[in-house]
TrEMBL record:
<keyword id="KW-0472">Membrane</keyword>
<feature type="domain" description="J">
    <location>
        <begin position="3"/>
        <end position="68"/>
    </location>
</feature>
<dbReference type="InterPro" id="IPR052763">
    <property type="entry name" value="DnaJ_C4"/>
</dbReference>
<dbReference type="Pfam" id="PF00226">
    <property type="entry name" value="DnaJ"/>
</dbReference>
<protein>
    <submittedName>
        <fullName>J domain-containing protein</fullName>
    </submittedName>
</protein>
<feature type="transmembrane region" description="Helical">
    <location>
        <begin position="188"/>
        <end position="206"/>
    </location>
</feature>
<keyword id="KW-1133">Transmembrane helix</keyword>
<dbReference type="InterPro" id="IPR036869">
    <property type="entry name" value="J_dom_sf"/>
</dbReference>
<keyword id="KW-0812">Transmembrane</keyword>
<dbReference type="InterPro" id="IPR001623">
    <property type="entry name" value="DnaJ_domain"/>
</dbReference>
Length: 208
């Protein structure tokens, strides 16, 4: 069962005004117009609408609160722990980039999102990825049922995107292929040779 209060960042005792304020804030964050063609944000916006409509309609809210209270009372389940969903807003990220992690689990009373620690059974977290190992960053979701002493684990691996800052080397062969023109081939050198030949011919005609 989805915890709409947790999704909105509220307590179950939140007032209608607080619910509306939280909805306005998050709808701005997840609105499809701000994140065009991104299925992740489209899905989150739909879930946000679902939470808002449930918690602002008195009859639906009363029924939902009843079910949520019953679920909280029977948190320890005889069923094995399950990871229903575990996802990130993007898999390829640059160092220092923000990523939104979301998860939904069942039948576990101890849930950990590593390397960040204990979390609730359902929720989301915005992280900043700045430490990669061999170009990868790993997230682990641990769900443990202490009554059954069973654990399930799922991992997600983010790939580092590195900007290519190497200079263009296409011009290098061209530069290497250029040879220095010998002094003997320069126009000034040829002019002096022709002048010397002309002087010799003139001298021969005059005195020969």
């Amino acid at each position: 069962m989805k915890n709409y209060y947790y999704f909105l960042g509220l307590e179950p005792t939140a007032t209608k005004e607080q619910i509306k304020a939280a909805y306005r804030k998050l709808s701005h964050k997840y609105h499809p117009d701000r994140n065009p063609d991104d299925p992740f944000f489209q899905k989150r916006f739909m879930q946000l609408r679902e939470a808002y409509e449930t918690l602002t309609e008195p009859a639906q809210k009363a029924l939902y609160d009843q079910q949520l209270e019953a679920l909280s009372y029977h948190q320890r389940s005889m069923l094995p722990p399950v990871i229903k969903s575990f996802s990130v807003s993007k898999r390829r990220v640059a160092s220092g980039e923000k990523v939104i992690v979301t998860w939904n689990t069942l039948n576990g009373d101890v849930v950990k999102l590593l390397p960040y620690g204990l979390v609730r059974g359902y929720g989301e977290k915005t992280i900043v990825v700045d430490s990669f190992e061999n170009g990868e960053f790993q997230l682990l979701l641990h769900v443990h049922n202490t009554l059954l002493k069973k654990t399930v684990v799922q991992s997600l691996v983010l790939q580092q995107v590195v900007e290519n800052l190497q200079p263009n080397s296409d011009a290098e062969p061209i530069l290497r292929g250029r040879e220095k023109v010998p002094e003997s081939k320069k126009p000034g050198y040829l002019l002096w040779i022709l002048l010397a030949v002309a002087v010799v011919v003139f001298y021969y005609l005059l005195f020969g």
